Amino acid sequence: MKKTLLGIVAACTFAIIAIAAEAPFNNDVPDKYTVKKGDTLWDISELYLRDPWLWPEIWYANPQIRNPHLIYPGDIISLVYIDGRPRLMLERGRDVKLSPGIKVLPHAEAIPALPLDIINNFLSRNRIVTQEEADAAPYVVAGYEKRLLSGVGDTFYARGQFDETPAYGLYRIGKPYIDPETEELLGIRAQDVGSAKLKTIDADIGTLLATRTEEEVRVGERLLPHEERRMESTFYPSAPEDTVEGVIMAVEGGISQVGHLDVVAINRGEREGLAPGNVLAIYKQGETVTDKVAKEKITLPDERGGLLMIFRTFEKMSYGLVLSADRPLAVNDVVKNP
Prior knowledge:
Blueprint: H1 2-22, E1 32-34, H2 41-48, E2 59-60, E3 76-82, E4 85-91, H3 116-124, E5 127-129, H4 131-136, E6 139-143, E7 149-150, E8 155-159, E9 167-178, E10 185-202, E11 205-213, E12 217-218, E13 222-225, E14 245-251, E15 257-258, E16 263-266, E17 279-284, E18 288-291, E19 296-299, E20 303-313, E21 318-325, E22 329-330, E23 334-336
Parallel strand pairs: 2-4
Antiparallel strand pairs: 1-3, 3-4, 5-10, 6-8, 7-12, 8-11, 9-10, 9-13, 10-11, 14-16, 14-23, 15-22, 16-21, 17-20, 17-23, 18-19, 20-21
């Protein structure tokens, strides 16, 4: 009997140790956390988890919550045990019971996955176009009274094929993104400089009114129909479903060094299975050294140096935000599954 009891205790102990080893939680995590304004999903994931991209795997979808993927300030995140395993559960803290229904919380109030003030321009305005789209787009030929620059409220003229779309975005065509590994053209960055309203069309000349300007509108700016794009701010941190390996092609600002909260462009996109919310590890390229014994050049293994989260995807490339940088990183460093 004593041996049986000891066996049961030992088995239970080993089971607890196994569960603890499998659990991806940090040490000393709070039993409850009240979501505050200014929080992001990444902040909360990092608070609880050693590997924040494992968030979906430990999330318990409370059936009483209509959409647990939307988290609002005032909500309570609790550490619970389901079938003996640790999980995180959401308790809605802001629903106000009214008769005969419940107060509806607009989606826009949900906390974002990332700090939107940093990535807002990339989510809402800047876009990636093909060479064909850039070449076919109408372009500014002159301002009113032959001015070279135009501002908000100014009339200007553009030439090209107009389809009577009433509203256009004004874009400055930037440098192309070329895959450093294959030399494939992945896309061309179109920088948002404003918006315009089409007034009249005469042959291939359109007369337009600048309704919004981020910068002065120059001769040569391209006009593209406004892109209907829903800002995806409530995606969850996650690992890519498929194996992904690529490189950082560019960092915003035209510099080569990459640091915390920098926006970077990588040479992998939707065709490789990437989606907003996917987390990738950044690896510093291994240095080339001389093996003095073998008398030959060798390349050392890549060393992990940070994490980024994808927030905007295109067919052949993506934009990501660097969430951590443990060492100096740079353009051409490798990104792969975390």
